[in-house]
Design a protein that fits this description.
By secondary structure, the chain is α+β, with helices and mostly antiparallel strands. The chain is built from 18 helices and 43 strands.
Amino acid sequence: VGGGIAGLQAASYLADKAVSVILIDDRAFLGGQSYLRNEHIESKKVNQWIREKQNEIVQATNIKIFTRTTALSIHDGNLLQAVELKQDHLPLEKRDVNQPRQSMHTIRVRYILLATGAQERHIAFHNNDLPGVMLSSTVSSLINEYAVIPGEQVVIFTNNNSTYNLVARMIQAEIDPVAVVDSREKNRIDEKYVKLLEDNNIQAFYGSAVIAANGSKHVTGVQIQSILFENKQWKLVGNDVKVIKCDILAVSGGFNPMINLGHQTGSRPLWDDVRLAFLSKDNDKIKIAGSADYYFNTDDCLADASNKTKDICVALGIEKALKLSKCSKHDFAVAPLFYVPSNLKYASNSKAFVDFQNDVKVSDIKQAIQENYQSIEHIKRYTVMGFGTDQGKVGNVVGIGIAAQMLQRPIEAIGTTTFRPPYSPISLGSLAGYKVKDLYEPKRYTPMHFSHQANGCDWECVGQWMRPWFFPKSKGEDMHAAVQRESLSARTSLAIMDASTLGKIDIQGPDAREFLNRVYTNAWSKLAAGKARYGLMLDENGMVIDDGVTTCLDENHFLMTTTTGGAARIYEWLERWLQTEWPELKVYITSVTDHWSTTALVGPKSREVMQELCQDIDFTKDAFKFMEYRQGTVCDVPARIIRISFSGELAYEINVQANYGRYIWDKCLDAGKKFNITKYGTETMHVLRAEKGYVIVGQDTDGTVTPVDLGMQWIIGKTKPFSFIGERSLQREDILRKDRKQLVGLLTQDPSIVLKEGAQLIQSLDSSMSEGHVTSSYFSSVLGRSIALALIKGGLSRKDEIIYARTAKDKEVVAAKITGSVFYDIEGERRDG
């Protein structure tokens, strides 16, 4: 893990050996933070060395390279997870919608080598969150990686040697720093660095610190004061404060080896008081190399990475022990400066930030300790330090160091906060799975799917089900023409629809009727076997959440149907009430949506076809009435037949075991040929039901609609001895308002204009206040005009009123008359045939 200097050296060592290797790096290119290194590696320029190593690794047949890939977590058994950014870095117009944006890799390995590098830490001082205050490694990156000069006047504030490489690089780029402020005494700094500053006439302030950054919206200067480390505490010396103008302040407070991944399984890192950093120890399966193990000297880093990979090869039995050059951990002679004490001027209002994302200041840590929070885990929670998306990578070690100095305890006694996966924030999509083609969302197919496909239907995805949208008779027939033809056939002769996608829930048990009484608004105690009833379901707030027909198969056995899109949601809803609220009820529910295939025969000729297909049921008008159920055989296949209609026409729903679905569908088509049987899809279904004013939950309702709003007061059981879900909410003051949005019909003054669904409705042409919106809108072939359903404020009492429809994109306003919601066969005579 990590494609920097150490990672490249390790991968190069393993190239073409008898071991399978994966190299992961979160950058777009390999090489890591090479701009922080020496100018040469093994007598070669850094970039040349990286290119050679990369070519060597790419050509190795045993190594896979993953760039733009972040290692997120290491779990027990060396299970590593990583997310690869496949397309997120590309502009939208260049992304392939058929390919995943991200890929989650789950990798089980024998050994892990963490070459994750180190991250520079900041120093806390007053106003350190001003724009223009940045880490010295950021300045290095801007200059070396992007050829950007971040400012014209740069001051460097440091407590270690690393920043003198930046000084040298800036001099080379002809942007001499204004000054270097080093918290260490001059005699503790390598002479070559002192000479570098003197030879280039760069101001040097040794034994000093930046006590504050000046400016409001950007750094305009810094204030410097002498500082002394005494009795393990930093103290400002004297009152002489120097002010230096600058527009960039580059800060370096030392480095934190990035050891998070190695400790996600629960182990704790150890504090190294010499190097002022938390370090890890290798274990049998996880090795740490390079600057992650505090080897900042390039030669030492290369030797360390080689040693660690040698150890792995020896453990794998593919290589004998070799003697490699020894390496010693190289430090930057770091001074333990985590924060600069406030002088008298800022003592009462210091804005020395530790965690920049959550605005945690030094004073917050002090307050936590004064409140007797001494554990770092408690201090973290008191101050919310490290709660941000960086999970404490920026400020936690600084905060730990500050807490240790305030408590006058060694840092190793303070310890670290817990390292938890993921290492970096990730999208839920990368965890959920692919978002391409059929894997964007699982697709479900009815038993008749391939018949529909052979007949060239256009598809619509409803609740994951692939449903026929309409059946064009020829390539030139558009949806409007197909729907008009299909709906006329259903009204005048015979049509057929695949209704298999309806949710189906089998309900059994001695308390089944009681259960139905509680979940539906109407009464179910006296529904006889062989009868069916329409039911409306509410949530606790009294709002409609689903509807459907439930059939009584036997005294304690019912089959409930739900909307296609609501099947899973309603099943979970019912289970929740049974398991958590009514565990005393002896009721057992089972989802049987996939078990049954449903063919709906619709139209005036449907009875004749059923009599031909089924010989053991009496289909005469009085023997088999509307909302009744019979069990028999259709073409020798056991079937449940229900006389129910979502079209308002005479209709039968044939339910058979799913694997017979295609067979029964084809038999119905053959038997209906003499009546010119017509297949129809969801769009025609919508037109037919809208002509009859039948609502679709989720389209004509929006989560704020009650049965009264739908004009369905009749379905609320007033004499029910049992309370139902949502009953009490129907008596709330807001629910009884007269100006609530209510479902009505709309007829445009120009019958040829079809209103747009979602169009806002206004009371007059000069009004800007919405009175409601259009929920459903179609052209009715049987009526020869457009029809629409709408939710309008106080709509049930505004019959014959003219209202106006407008959409955001349309300048034209369409006038329509408010009517009842039933447009066709108002008395309901046609459903009986």
